[in-house]
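During the no-cost extension, the postdoctoral fellow (Dr. R.K.) reprocessed legacy sequence entries with the updated structure-token encoder. One reprocessed record is reproduced below for audit purposes.
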Amino acid sequence: MAHNDDSFFREVNEELRSDQMRYVWKRYGKIVIGAAVLIVVATAGYSGYRYWDASNSSAAGDRFVAALDLAQGKKYDEALAALGAIEKDGSGSYPVLAKMRAASVQSDKGDQAGAVKAFSEIGADTSAPQAIRDLANLRAAFILVDTGTYEQVAAKAEIMAVQGHMLANSAREALGLSAYKAGNMKQAKQWFEQITGDQSAPRNVANRAQIMLDNIASSGKAA
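Re-encoded structure tokens follow.
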């Protein structure tokens, strides 16, 4: 970029030595200077914005890490207050990340209904990235395995349990566990078999699915 600027100014200087360029400069010089000033101001403004944005993101990141430390230390109320502040005035992706972490803190604190509500709100937020929305719905589904019905879990997870989805096997696991908990061993078996039959399934998820299939087989209720 600097080399191109040097070449440009050299060419301008050469032209300025000619009579014709003297005439052009005399007539349009103010316009050229004005345009140059605008370019400098715009460039400085953009650089200033980038610096401001980077500074804000860095500050939000520091606040987010501090809130995580509070949650790790089981200072749940303080963590929720810190995360709530980031939701309101954080920059970049930190507000939605703060809301996700706050929902997890609510779950850790024992407020499962509040956590499901918070995760569900993120899952329904069309302004959030789809990957975040899917993860939020999956988190809600796993909480509902313990606290809700199979239908509630299915409403959150079934749309992700399709082949090729990044969270397919985790969604199938939630559905299988919920069906197992509801006593529907046949349906649970179907979900767990989809996991073990998928070569792309993470090993830990596939291992858990096989354990569940062994339990189902030993129960004799899924024939």
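Confidence is low (pLDDT under 50) at residues 15-25, 28-33, 35-55. The radius of gyration is 29 Å. The remaining legacy entries will be reprocessed before the final report is submitted.
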